[in-house]
Amino acid sequence: MAKKDNKQELPEEEVQQSAETVEAQEEVPEVNPWEEKYNAEHDSFLRLAADYDNFRKRTVKEKEQSYGNGKADALAKILPIYDNLERALNQPTEDAAYKKGVEMTMNELVKIFTGLGVEIFGEKGDAFDPNIHNAVMHTEEEGIEENTITQVFQKGFKIGDKVVRFAMVQVAN
């Protein structure tokens, strides 16, 4: 019987020794609580700095967009004047002074638009682009390439990449 007890004790001792070795290997060096607190505060500070930087960038972007949107809104309200001057220029008239005055007014308006960064597009003979043109009519004409603007009803305007008004055109199929 004593042998059975010895056999049972021997594996128990080995288990204890192996458990002690595992515990010794798993011991984690103690972390300084001040260092832990410093790391947490430092991490919090970095997050706050990143949040502030993102806020600053976002507000600058919104400010730039609001100026562009305001400029586009003002342009949209002035476009009927441009359209009326263009119609007046296309009307035949005997009065040279009248025609000269309308031409000067139109040239000044176009000069102001150019100064504001406004691009006028939609000329007869241009290639049709559905991103900036609005095709209101189609025509079947021989001798004209497909997707070519054959008539312009209303010019288009854009500021940068933002289209303020699409050009209304007739397109050859």
What does it look like?
This protein has 173 residues and is an alpha+beta fold. 60% of the residues lie in helices and 18% in strands. The protein contains three helices and six strands. It has helices at residues 2-26, 33-90, 96-115; strands spanning 118-121, 133-139, 148-154, 156-159, 162-165, 167-172. It has a three-stranded antiparallel sheet with strand order 1-4-5. Strand 4 (156-159) and strand 5 form a beta hairpin. The longest helix has 58 residues, at 33-90.
Could you provide a short overview of the structure?
With 173 residues, the chain is an alpha+beta fold. It contains three helices and six strands. Helix content is 60%, strand content 18%.
Largest sheet data? 3 strands, antiparallel
The residue-averaged pLDDT reads 87
Order of helices and strands: HHHEEEEEE
The number of helical segments is: 3
Distance between the termini: 107 Å
**Strands across the major sheet, in which order?**
1-4-5
List keywords for this structure.
disordered N terminus; 3-stranded antiparallel sheet; alpha+beta; 6 strands; single chain; 173 residues; 3-stranded mixed sheet
